[in-house]
Design a protein that fits this description.
Distance between the termini: 34 Å
Structural class: mainly beta
Number of strands: 18
Number of helices: 2
Shape: globular
Radius of gyration: 19 Å
Helix content: under 10%
């Protein structure tokens, strides 16, 4: 099967992941990877880089909705401390699809997953969507109605209040505004009761897996933890240590 790189996925055309940073991985609703993402100049949210930075960074969430199977390997690495006090786990070196699966790899580990197409959306409190030839900013807290007609899967209608309190509506079409459509779809997943793997109910890290599932292992001999969903033994998960 043909290999597709991430920039060929809808909504990922104007993102550069090789210099983006992985901030966390969690399983709260499906598999979510929080990123400090590099936006290219053609992205609707692009702004001039800060004086001390080379790129325009924006916090984004990479989601894999409704996973059928996944194999997540988390390497035994220490998070990298940044000058602002935050930490990250390095970059995404590869992200592509082949043989009906998605593959991500980096210093942090690797993920092989079968799921619905991945979504990338802004985690700030606003959605940026296309309205005619212009882009508009919608406060998530002012959205009152979502309408996604099944016969038109590529169109979502939002009803929201503007700054003066007047109700407005806008249609977001996947073909015309793939980034806005992905953002709205991702937000719909946030507020609905979505699929959850419930492994830890939060961040997936090497240290957390060691704490909850392998407290008696000698950390010096463990290079990584592997999490397989579902397991081949009938359990929901199979968690194993990869030793040197």
């Amino acid at each position: 099967m043909e290999r597709l790189n991430y920039w060929q996925f809808p909504g990922f055309e104007n993102i550069y992941l090789e210099d983006s940073y992985v901030l966390s991985i969690n399983d709260k609703t499906s598999i979510q990877i929080l990123l400090e993402a590099v936006l290219t100049e053609n992205h609707s949210l692009y702004t001039q880089p800060l004086p001390e930075e080379q790129y325009c960074y924006r916090r984004m969430s990479l989601n894999f909705p409704y996973p059928q199977t996944y194999d997540l390997v988390l390497n035994n690495i220490s998070p990298i401390a940044d000058p602002d006090g935050s930490v990250d786990y390095g970059n995404i070196d590869e992200f592509f699809s082949a043989d009906g699966k998605y593959y991500l790899r980096g210093e942090w580990g690797e993920l092989t997953i079968v799921s619905d197409p991945p979504l990338l959306f802004d985690v700030e409190n606003y959605l940026i969507v296309k309205n005619g030839d212009n882009f508009i900013e919608i406060n998530k807290e002012k959205i009152s109605i979502f309408e996604w007609k099944r016969e038109r899967k590529g169109v979502i209608t939002l009803v929201y209040e503007n700054t003066s309190g007047s109700p407005l509506s806008v249609q977001i079409q996947a073909e015309q505004d793939p980034e806005g459509f992905a953002a709205v779809l991702g937000y719909m997943g946030e507020i609905e009761r979505g699929y959850t793997t419930e492994l830890t109910g939060g961040d997936l890290t090497f240290d957390k897996l060691k704490q909850y599932y392998a407290a008696n292992l000698n950390q010096e001999n463990v290079q990584a933890f592997s999490v397989k969903y579902p397991s081949s033994t009938g359990d929901k998960y199979l968690i194993s240590a990869i030793t040197s």
